[in-house]
Design goal:
Oligomer: single chain
Strand order of the largest sheet: 3-2-1-10-5-6-7-9
Helix content: 10-25%
Distance between the termini: 40 Å
Number of strands: 10
Mean pLDDT: 88
CATH superfamily: L,D-transpeptidase catalytic domain-like
Order of helices and strands: HHEEEEEEEHEEHEH
Number of helices: 5
Length: 217
């Protein structure tokens, strides 16, 4: 799996080399409500071709939303998400090799950053989208096997704190994963941008504003 992710990263880098920026390009959210930072990073990714023409995902931790785009920057779908219990933009070193029972509540973060992601099989045989393999962070179908956690109800909640429950993985509705995420990434790799919650997105990605005419500011 590790070698596969390294190969995917090389493919992504090669793709970026021959996708030139075009001045008028922006992401098309198709009237889907989104935060300013989600729009800025999506517009920047398309305008700069940072996504290399591959499908990409914006994970807005502050608003607990996931947006999936095709390689042209057209929105394929959006959905609520469950995220790491603790606030923070970094993973504890070595956390991916630890047993879940040893992970303390304050360590259950969803790391921010740009990740080369690919569909793969979990140890249970389910297809998941690996985001940060070393930290064992994936985007996958919501897991509702522990009724007391009320994960399905949390997905529907409009209270931000209700969406913070996982060990760091990004949980989305089952139908959304099957019809949007898996469909977008079935042919290969893509990029996942997990927005930070403790600092501006521009500090993490080097993103910039793209105005209505496609110019930067």
């Amino acid at each position: 799996m590790r070698m596969g992710l390294i190969a995917a990263a090389m493919v992504a880098a090669a793709a970026m080399a021959w996708f030139p920026a075009r001045a008028a390009d922006r992401a098309n959210f198709q009237q889907q409500p989104a935060s300013r930072e989600a729009r800025q990073v999506a517009d920047w990714a398309v305008h700069s071709r940072d996504h290399g023409g591959m499908p990409f995902v914006i994970v807005d931790k502050v608003h607990s939303r996931v947006f999936v785009f095709d390689g042209r920057g057209e929105l394929l779908g959006a959905a609520p998400a469950l995220l790491g219990l603790a606030q923070g933009d970094h993973s504890v070193p070595g956390i991916g090799q630890r047993k879940m029972s040893s992970i303390r509540p304050e360590e259950r973060t969803t790391p921010a950053g740009r990740f080369v992601a690919t569909l793969a099989r979990s140890l249970q045989g389910d297809d998941i989208l690996w985001v940060d393999y070393d930290a064992a962070i994936a985007l996958h179908r919501v897991i509702a096997t522990a009724p007391k956690e009320r994960r399905l109800q949390r997905l529907d909640s409009r209270t931000a704190s209700d969406h913070r429950i996982t060990y760091g993985c990004i949980n989305v509705p089952v139908k959304f994963f099957d019809t949007v995420v898996a469909a977008a990434f079935h042919a290969g790799t893509g990029i996942v941008y997990v927005l930070p919650e403790t600092r501006p997105a521009s500090e993490v990605f080097g993103s910039y504003d793209v105005d209505a005419t496609g110019t930067t500011k």
